[in-house]
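Researcher: Structure for this, please.
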Amino acid sequence: MYVDFMSMVHKTQKRDYLGRVNDPEFPKAKAAELAQKFDFDYWDGDRRVNYGGYKYIPGRWTPIAKKMIEHYNLKDGCKVLDVGCGKGFLIYEFKLLLPKSQVFGLDRSHYAIKNAKSEVSKSIIHGCASSLPFSSNTFDLVISINTLHCLQNFRLYNALKEIERVSKGSKYICVESFRNEAEKANLLYWQVTCEMFCSPEAWEWWFTHTGYNGDHSFIFFE
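Model: Predicted structure, token format:
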């Protein structure tokens, strides 16, 4: 099912697509090479590479966590996994709202884990979405936001099956996509780590092909 939790955050940012491609100091190829290390430059380096300082902002993730808790009817004491959690800001919000819950994150970036929100840093595991180190049917909710499009197709296949496997039922993923040629061009201009360039119809094919039956939404670059 299509459920949109992320537009409220995504649409608050203005983007200079041509500026990112043509920047003289950080042209697109150089920015992408730096970003794909998922180290300092990706998280806290120059804005022309990626985030330009990925810091916790009180209240930014709270509405998203609240909507997910309400939509999936989560109760205190539940188990939540965020695949590609970065510095753990969203799982921290879950922990604030559901203090008895067990929240876990997984990320490929050693830098993100080292610089994660201290309150949840010990709950973040280094790893890849294509091989989740958890037993089947463990989590009441598994989420993955703006992560799976960074995987090449052979890892994406396994990641979708893994998310399905470790969930008791509720799942939500958000990935980048495009509905027309203008949005495709903007996505190509802006992204620095994307490997899967899929229309919504192509993403739906992936969901069906892998047996993923959870919720999803798309990020569009309008």
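Researcher: Any notable elements?
Model: The chain has a mean pLDDT of 96. The CA atoms of residues 25 and 48 lie 9 Å apart.
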